[in-house]
Amino acid sequence: MELKEYWAILRKRGWIILVMAILMAVAGGVFSFFQEPMYRASIQVRVEPARIDWGNVNAVKTLLRSYQVLIHSADIAQKVIDRAQLDMEPDQLLAHMKVDPDESNFTIRIDVENRDPEVARIIAETTAEVFRINREQWNQKQRREDRVDVSIREHVRYVPKVRPKPRLNMFAGGVLGVLLGVIVVLFLEWIESDILRTPEVVERTLGLEVLGTIPPA
Q: Are 146 and 171 contained in the same domain?
């Protein structure tokens, strides 16, 4: 196909792409309207060895992964529920919690999502506090130089809404609509591909010169 043929197809069926994009963008907005709001609270705990040397530093880096598993465990979740007096099961709490260790700065980030921003904040801060107490109890059984100190870097100050995001959903819907529209247009053109519509197409396809055409009524 030549460029002008693509342009002709776009002029003829471009409205399909436009309509599909508008419909899918509106669908994205409607989806956002009915989507349940969700808020995310984030908190960081710092993990550092009592004695700074090469061996202890590398040991803490290794421990960060095990601490990730410990924080995201049913035992810690149950202690958080009991301490904060939450009406939920450990599995429900853990389903909306994410724990990410960062070896570059010896921190562990705890993200909690909930429909209520205050509940999200309480769970995040209580989880950090329960983990800190857990490590303090462990430290009491260790020699001073073998201890690993855990501290809360900063308490939660702001709990942003993570969804719904109407603009993002509408944009994604519009992009999807454009793709669907292009597919529909290509399908329609494929169906009509055996129809010779212009003298240029007839000459190119059949290798014959067109001597005349019948004008449309």
A: no
